[in-house]
């Protein structure tokens, strides 16, 4: 896909969790300093699982995927149903392209909590990376059924449907996502993109004119207008 807005939302989920445990945006050197400080704390208290989760979170920020996986393995040896460790280990495995392992972790989460939306979204993304798009779509159908008011569910399904050239279904989902988050320009542009792909260029052009009237930067819209003329 050219754009998967739901991937951004998964990354935002990670960021929110980091903030929740007291880890804030820092420079690369500050992250390394934080890592050194956490390592010193772990040396004094090696069985403190919260410290290992914090260390793994910093490893993720530094894109040290293998180190993060090792920390989550340690946590899971002591707490095999720790959903946080399972979720972010799957996230790290995905970056390492160990898709079967990521799939297993997401499935373990869903066995414990079948309504875990982020795990189902993550599993769907892994299936797409594995080339199993129909399986991925089945998962996203469940997400939308379980969370009919979730923008993320509609965005994820619309992105996949667009990639699969199921434009009628994709248009419906982009419209639902835009309805739920009416100020999100990315969602509106994604809807317009599908209209253009469907050959409904006049409708797309009218939607672009509406955005122009709302003061959206013309440089953002220029390429879409050009596609409507071709």
Provide a descriptive summary of the structure in words:
This protein is 78% helix and 0% strand. It contains 13 helices and no strands. The chain has helices at residues 5-20, 28-44, 49-61, 65-78, 83-95, 99-112, 117-129, 133-146, 151-163, 167-180, 185-197, 201-213, 218-229. Helix 5 (83-95) runs parallel beside helix 7 (117-129). The two termini are 22 Å apart. The model has no long low-confidence stretch (mean pLDDT 89).
Amount of beta strand: under 5%
Instruction: Please report the number of helical segments.
Output: 13
Residue stretches low in confidence (pLDDT < 50, at least 5 long) are: none
Backbone structural class: mainly alpha
SSE topology string: HHHHHHHHHHHHH
Distance between the termini: 22 Å
The total beta strand count reads 0
- Arithmetic mean of pLDDT: 89
C-alpha Rg, in Å?
20 Å
Q: What is the subunit arrangement here?
A: single chain
List the helices and strands and how they pair.
Blueprint: H1 5-20, H2 28-44, H3 49-61, H4 65-78, H5 83-95, H6 99-112, H7 117-129, H8 133-146, H9 151-163, H10 167-180, H11 185-197, H12 201-213, H13 218-229
Helix pairs in contact: 1-7, 1-9, 2-3, 3-4, 4-5, 5-6, 5-7, 6-7, 7-8, 8-9, 9-10, 10-11, 11-12, 12-13
Quick gist of this model?
The chain is built from 13 helices and no strands. The chain is mainly α.
List keywords for this structure.
mainly alpha; 230 residues
């Amino acid at each position: 896909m050219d754009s998967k807005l739901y991937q951004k939302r998964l990354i935002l989920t990670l960021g929110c969790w980091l903030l929740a445990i007291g880890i804030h945006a820092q420079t690369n050197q500050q992250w390394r300093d934080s890592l050194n400080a956490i390592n010193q704390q772990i040396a004094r208290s090696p069985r403190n699982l919260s410290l290992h989760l914090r260390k793994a979170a910093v490893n993720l920020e530094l894109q040290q995927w293998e180190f993060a996986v090792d920390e989550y393995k340690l946590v899971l040896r002591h707490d095999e149903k720790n959903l946080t460790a399972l979720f972010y280990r799957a996230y790290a495995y995905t970056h390492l392209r160990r898709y079967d392992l990521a799939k297993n972790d997401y499935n373990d989460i869903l066995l414990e909590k079948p309504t875990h939306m982020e795990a189902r979204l993550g599993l769907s993304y892994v299936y797409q990376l594995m080339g199993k798009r129909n399986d991925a779509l089945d998962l996203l159908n469940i997400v939308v059924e379980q969370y009919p008011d979730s923008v993320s569910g509609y965005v994820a399904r619309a992105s996949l449907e667009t990639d699969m050239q199921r434009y009628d279904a994709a248009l419906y989902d982009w419209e639902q996502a835009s309805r739920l988050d009416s100020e999100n320009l990315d969602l509106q542009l994604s809807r317009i993109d599908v209209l253009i792909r469907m050959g409904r260029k006049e409708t797309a052009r009218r939607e672009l004119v509406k955005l122009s009237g709302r003061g959206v930067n013309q440089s953002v819209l220029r390429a879409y207008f050009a596609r409507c003329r071709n």
